[in-house]
Amino acid sequence: MEPILSRNFNVPNAWKLSVAESRGAYETARKTLTSMKPDEITQVVTAANLRGLGGAGFPTGKKWQFLPKETTKPIYLVVNADEGEPGTFKDRYILERDPHQMIEGIIISAFAIRSHKAYIYIRGEYVEPFRRLQSAVDEAYAKNFLGKNIFGSGWDLDLVVHRGAGAYICGEETALLNSLEGGKGFPRLKPPFPAIVGLFGCPTIINNVETLACVPPILKNGAEWFSKLGSPGNGGTHLFSVSGHVKKPGVYELPMGTLLREIIEKHAGGLRDGRKLKAVIPGGISAKILTANEIDVKMDYDGLKAAGTMLGSAGVIVMDDTTCMVGALYLACKFFAHESCGQCSPCREGTGWAFKIVKRIYEGQGSVKDLDTLLKIASNMEGRTICVFADAAAWPIQSYITKFRSEFEEYIGRNVKLEMQNVK
Amino acid sequence: MANITIDGKPYTVKDGITIIEAIDQARIPLPRYCYHPGLSIAGNCRICQVEVEKMPRTVIACNTRVAEGMVIHTQSSKAKESQRVVLEFLLANHPLDCPVCDQSGECKLQDYYMEVGLYDPMFDDMKVKKTKKAFPIGPNVMLDQERCILCTRCVRYADEVTQTHEFGVFNRGDHSELDVYPGKTWEGKYAGNVVDICPVGALTDRDFRFKMRVWYLGSQSSVCPGCSRGCNIEIHYEKSRPYHLKESRVMRLKPRENQAVNQWWMCDEGRYGYKSIDENRFRPVTDWKTTFEKVVTHLSAAVPERWAVLASPQNTNEELYLVKRIFKDALKWQQIAFKAPGQEGYADNFLLKADKNPNTSGASQILGLADGGDMTAIIERAKRGGLDGLFVFSHDLAKIFGNETLEVIRKNVKTIIFEGPNQNAISAVANIGLPAASYAEKDGTFTNFEGRVQRIRKALEPMVPSKPTWEILLELAGLLGLPLSYTRPEFIFNDLAKDDEVFRGLTYKAISAQGKMWNKNTVIPSPLKGINSVEGSS
Predict the structure, then answer these.
(1) CATH topology of domain B108-205
(2) Which residues of B touch A360 (CB under 8 A)?
(3) Of A9, A148, A302, A403, which has the fewest beta carbons less than 10 angstroms from its beta carbon?
(4) ipTM value of the model?
(5) Quick check: B534 pLDDT over 50?
(6) pTM of this prediction?
(7) Hey, is the C-beta of B532 within 8 angstroms of any chain A C-beta?
(8) Closest by alpha carbon to A286, among A413, A176, A389, A166?
(9) B9-13 and B2-6 as β-strands: parallel, antiparallel, unpaired?
């Protein structure tokens, strides 16, 4: 398969405009802006079955069509580069190694949704990606690929790169908007949705880095070409971040619908020698865990949904038989307790409460009753909050405990406290 | 209009309102913490969960709009279960200090636990400790962060109503803390309202803290006499433990909702103004029989041109009507004034009015003195020795005209009769003192600045030896042989309504709890906005 998103990843200095241009960057944008109408672009993107690659998988073209047809307010395009999902590092590769493909996607998409101002909200910890992205933006401005009258098309677009301050929740699109406005990163009540009332109260489209990087190839090669790359309804390829106990962890660009087993065993080089697969998280830490017997699933939105989990951000975390599931859940719960924004009571209190219990179990002070309490807390949090953070925090608890209950019970039965003391 | 069903009963409600508004209109109880009709929707407490048929999950009533044909359940097992689990989360880290918490008894956590909770708690770990406990954040309000459920009502109040932006939620997750921003204190003219809207014991009133358990309080609805707006209030008084706090009977005032007058709010000036009911009262040793006889002797011998009466806009419409009937109509006195010059106070474009009297409008109308009468001329005349006597209701002449003026008047006016509830410089030097009941000790009506006639109600017996002004005036009228005889202020008001066309058609029943505009310049006032709001801003 010809790489689409990762084609420049191994080209030295592809983040520099001169190199990127020699590889064809901005040609599609020039052609599109000078020859197509905005609505035609939206139609192509819709027909390509491009779905949001940030995690939720919402059809991109459909999202763009939610914008009000007539508005006196400015329309904003916001790029979600706040990649914070544990186990996910695909956007980082684009930002660091091929930012121009994304910027080109931003130019085309902003033109399609009639936006003259775009913001990139980049994760604060991404220091090197930010430097390269900023220099790429500066270079694009210098060549008038951004700014006034781009490519002589009469279209103006300003692009601002804004750094986040390290909160996971700011990857949630409305929390991101609040943060971008200078407020606290609290997700907003919906409705109204950002397409109607978004950044600074104006219609706003928020797209993920990878989603926008897909736009130039779609416009270049056509909708049909793109949609045929993936599985039905899940167009294109996807960058899978593979981490954990495999021989070759990294980012792999594969068609949507590739089997999880194939990703682990073929592309990531399989498990380390002498180790057996125990569990896989298929879509970042929020996704429900899969056991070793459940990895013959298609890695696309519909396939993983049918398997009871989700594609999410496609961060594949592989765990072999040396992994302690109690420890894994401890880390997951710690993360969610730390990152809950604290706005809704079920999530604010629930994540902290669950972490206390898991910590207690992990330190050898748990009881079997605690497992049922945890499951109850998880199901009580689920679906009762403004954003899906509480659900994301609930799913690891539910899936780890139900799928590995015997291990949890065995752990509780052991005198872990004594074992830990002996280790010291 | 939308036709909806709530708990099996059909209702027709306005399109586009939220479910909680529909539920409130139908007077169906539903737990809520963050929702307050006077503030924007936050949707963060998550307790107002209701079941809506055809929706997969329970939804929050405060941020879901009604739609035609919607079938809503507030009491179904699904809805109740949702409310219960949210409450359990809210109580997970809440301290178990109800026995020492001042909110106890009017705490929504307690109330809703009894209504929808009643579960066996699962929480078996250490609670989160927060930094500020019993921490004064301003002159009137005490903060306890551990009790706070982070509903952000106070944050939104300071953002949207006072627009002063003092409050914020700091930190994240279960370590979130409510606080004022660094270097800020929570003060201002309307600070006390956050105590009312705080559903739990996080923000308590430093004036009321630990004075009395709320279940010992009686409550009577009344009107604040602090300015001419006439904010609707509840007088909270001790009803059963007179030994508890010596002679202080009124414990606090709370605003009472009236959308046309004060919405849900009141100012601190009014809120803490209740102390005059119990403190600094005018309580001379009074033998009422001889006192009345003495007064009547003076009045019947008075030459109308050489006597003047200073009526009070602190008195009720009924009392002012009696003043008119006795002094103006029967005794034919010409020199009547009620408006003290130069007494304007602080005003803003929210609640506070410059006129610090509750019934200036009523006095002007009833006494026929649109300008309030020329009090300065009367005083000048008294100073020159042009008056034999002065009948003063409530006014503190030393405060208005200065101590020296009062001394001169005292020297040059033979008889000064003072009637009023509180002591002042003139009560001390009057020849005859008539101790009057305070506004909390009588029934009556005030007319506010825009002509809204509102009722005050008796919460307490008049403090011995005082009597309500209307009773005093009726006693005097009887001794003067005037045909004035009423057993209740209500009947005085009925005659006033008969006599005065502006009050015509009004009765106590018609006035009811929310007041009623009189028949003059009946303009519907524009709705209240935030204090600093500029016309045209939202």
Answers:
(1) Alpha-Beta Plaits (3.30.70)
(2) 125
(3) A148
(4) 0.93
(5) no
(6) 0.93
(7) no
(8) A389
(9) antiparallel
